[in-house]
Write a structure and sequence with these properties.
The strands form 4 sheets. Strands 9, 10, 11, 12, 13, 14 and 15 form a 7-stranded antiparallel β-sheet that branches. The protein has a 5-stranded antiparallel β-sheet with strand order 2-3-4-8-7, with helices on one face. By secondary structure, the protein is of the alpha+beta class.
């Protein structure tokens, strides 16, 4: 049995030392979150969810890499693990909103389902103890979490991810209401660049099923499309990445 050193464990993933310097192995757990983007989460268990999220994140990260959007993803290793680049994670959850929903609707009194005039990028300080509070650019720069140039690059990165994800989802009859990403720094010699890190999966997206729903074009809220039923399995099925055999993989022996 493989012996690895655990680097980090969160609600949905475990990170282990990778086989080469500058790499990590990302293990997807069945336990995870059903988030209100991006705020307090409830941990749940869903057999096979980790397998599906591994495949879905591989699909999205590979697609982003192919259009020139840099990510930490290198390759999938097995049903639950993938090899990723090590990155210095900026302590922000970057949320892109296309439609009013959840916390945004309650905060601003906008009807659920209302199309926003343009995609809105928000920042939340990544700290579970504080329930990831929303922060402004002034907070981010003042506390040294990122520079103004970093923020400009993060917005550009997030909007490119949004264009790609929205198009992919629309192609399979799904509306991407909002999603969150994490961004990391990597160095290539003396040059630093920002990349998409963590994962892209139903854990980090709000997805609405649009099959059979007609959009309005007068700026009024659309008919409620409803959440995508069984988002993990249905999204994987529609994208053609549903594995034929969803099974559990024994966790490797740890060296603490």
């Amino acid at each position: 049995m493989a012996r690895r050193k655990k680097v980090y464990e969160g609600k949905t993933k475990i990170l282990y030392d990778g086989p080469e310097p500058g790499t990590l192995i990302q293990y997807f757990k069945d336990e995870g979150s059903q988030p209100e983007s991006p705020a307090p989460v409830q941990t749940v268990s869903n057999d096979g969810k980790g397998v599906l999220n591994n495949r879905l994140s591989e699909f999205f990260m590979t697609g982003l890499n192919s259009i020139g959007v840099p990510t930490h993803f290198l390759k999938r290793l097995n049903m639950r693990e993938q090899l990723v680049r090590m990155a210095e994670i900026i302590p922000l959850e970057v949320v892109v909103r296309n439609f009013a929903a959840g916390e945004l609707s309650s905060r601003l009194g906008i009807a659920e389902g209302t199309a926003l005039p343009r995609p809105i990028v928000e920042y939340y300080y990544k700290d579970d103890r504080l329930n990831s509070p929303m922060v402004s650019e002034e907070h981010i720069i003042a506390f040294g979490w990122a520079t103004q140039q970093d923020l400009d690059d993060i917005v550009a990165l997030a909007l490119r991810v949004n264009d790609f994800m929205s198009g992919v989802m629309l192609g399979v009859g799904i509306r991407l209401a909002d999603f969150r990403i994490e961004v990391g720094r990597v160095w290539e010699g003396d040059y630093m660049r920002l990349i998409v890190a963590d994962e892209i999966s139903p854990d980090s997206c709000r997805l609405w099923d649009m099959r059979g729903v007609t959009d309005r074009t007068d700026g009024q809220p659309v008919a409620d499309p409803g959440p995508l039923a069984d988002a993990y399995t249905e999204l994987a099925r529609r994208l053609g990445v549903l594995p034929s055999n969803v099974t559990h993989t024994t966790k490797p022996t740890l060296i603490n």
